[in-house]
Request: fold
Amino acid sequence: MPETDFSKTGVPAASIRHNVMLSSLSRWRIGGAADVVMTPRDESDLAAILRYIKAAAVPHVIIGDGSNLLFDDAGFRGVIVHIGRSFGGCDISPDDATIAAGAGFWVPSLVRHSVNAGLAGIIHAIGIPGTLGGLVVMNGGSQRKGIGDHVVAVEAMDYEGRLHRLEKADLGFAYRRSVLQDGGLVVTRVLLQLTPGDAVALRREAISIMAARRAKFPKVRANCGSVFVSDPKLYALMGPPGEAIEKAGLKGLRMNGAQISPEHANFIVNNGGAHSEDVLRLIHEARARVAEASGIWMEAEVRHVRPDGVIRPAHISAAELTASLSSDDRCPAPL
Ligand SMILES: Cc1cc2nc3c(=O)[nH]c(=O)nc-3n(C[C@H](O)[C@H](O)[C@H](O)COP(=O)(O)OP(=O)(O)OC[C@H]3O[C@@H](n4cnc5c(N)ncnc54)[C@H](O)[C@@H]3O)c2cc1C
Reply:
């Protein structure tokens, strides 16, 4: 990282931490040290940080809750900008069925607020552990839905510290995709349009979605949710990614501390001491075996953060890593 003095941003020292283990910022609990983590308290802090990052050409990564990120064991030589709880706040207008909320707002709480206000539309996101900003960037959701369906507009900051309002048409929402993934803007606030519903019925639906998730997904081990995105062609041949991986005989496959979950094969769990390389090798093995059976190479939903700060779908890093290993050093077949 270039020579930096973050005190010049005017951001208080308490919001700047040095040498932070990225494992503490990821749901996978994997990752070496980042040089600096900055947690802006408000838009004015964020503007100062982004201007400084641009002027000093500092490698950086924006994160929310880290629930979709695989950090590298080699860590990150740059600055993590953490959009957390201070970017909260949630204004509900039951009359026009809209919600405006901060990018750091916790998604399950946001959905609970919408349910209590009798507003329908985003209940599918009730069990997704992340920030609203991260959810919008990833166009996350469940039951094959995405939050983008209900986004009216997003407020986002550029690296000059200027705020922009982007309308839904500007955001390029597609399955688990938005133009916000291309970088250049930090989401600060989101406006959602919901529909009036019945709070009691919505509450019942929320409970049933949570019960279904609890029954299906790994309970205890650290994980980052579904590893692969569903592909309609693969779905027709072998089912969703978890079923395809299971049919390929890989459920339970271990690579040191990482394991394809014995509960749901589209999850990789950290049983303790897993390294980023272990996860990447399991990702590659799952793709390769499913491709042998179907001719289709699955793509990852989770993102790998390289030590140089490039964020990309983890299967690309997995393929690169595996190509660099000799064939007799590949992932062993499941027992
Ligand atoms: C147990 C578990 C279950 C999950 N279930 C689901 C599910 O059902 N459906 C689903 O879609 N996902 C699921 N996920 C994945 C994850 O929760 C979502 O992708 C989530 O929306 C990511 O939010 P985050 O705040 O953690 O973002 P992060 O993981 O921190 O970041 C994700 C991406 O968004 C970018 N980003 C984050 N915040 C901002 C911002 N304010 N401005 C600009 N860029 C930003 C980051 O740079 C990164 O590229 C699950 C994860 C876990 C651990």
Summary: The domain at 232-329 is CATH 3.90.78.10 (Uridine Diphospho-n-acetylenolpyruvylglucosamine Reductase; domain 1). The chain is about 25% helix and 20% strand. The first strand starts at residue 16 and ends at 21. The chain has three domains: 6-82, 90-201, 232-329.
